Amino acid sequence: MRKTERYPVEGANALWQIYKTVSFWKVLKNVIIIEIARYMPFLRVKNWMYRTFLCMKVGDKTAFAYKVLVDIMFPEKISVGKNCVIGYNTTILAHEYLIDEYRIGEVVIGDEVMVGANTTILPGVVIGDRAVVAAGSVVHKDVPAGSFAGGNPLQIIREAKERPEQTEQ
Fold it and tell me: Which N-terminal residues, if any, form the signal peptide (predicted)?
């Protein structure tokens, strides 16, 4: 089960009430930064923008591919470890708006994680260190460290297996 905080609303659907949830100015600033970053060819600059303006936690040497879309309302709830690859056109969400409620959840992506292109990561999930998520997947549950997962609905295709420590040569 995903770990999200639930907030009930009354009257119009939760998305219609967006600016009761988050400031218009915060959303506007985030949209501008995210749109610039999506097309930014310099990975260091992109990561700096995410850290500085969106308060995301982004590890060293992590690469967000072209057109990755991070959450525009709560990007500070996203944490990505070091030396990760987040594939082309992937979406990372930290919120979801429904009719009668909205939900907010942390997204934690471990170290050395590979996320394939066109993947959607939903709020409240943890992707463990050295996990691989296949392209086109919808990550709606946690992915254990070292495993290979994919599909919609997401399935763990291969569990992590014991392997000897890698030695540098």
Answer: none
